[in-house]
Design a protein that fits this description.
Layout: E1 9-11, E2 18-20, H1 35-49, H2 105-115
Amino acid sequence: MQPVLQPLVRTNPDNGTRALYFHPVKTENIVGMSAAESQALLNDLLEHSVRDEFTYRHQWRKGDVALWDNYGTLHYGVTADLGDAVRRLYRVAAWSKNVQPSLDRAAAVRELIASGT
């Protein structure tokens, strides 16, 4: 698979906010830096971003709904807190004049498979 250049900082086209954009395992290096320098910086950025003061952990109650801005949120699901409860997820994407989601589900699946995600 060919490497893909991605920006380290993305700007939300709707509100102008900026956020880091990298995968802690899949990102190989930062352009202009060695692999070792890149990994050191990425590790520092990740360590900083997951500090307690930047972390929210929801204590789920029946009927709760969680929403977040995917442009600027590092998130993952923790099922250990659910006990015997069922975790039911629905993905909803807000429509934006600047970002148009693909309505072709088959094409989206093919793209995911091709990207190795």
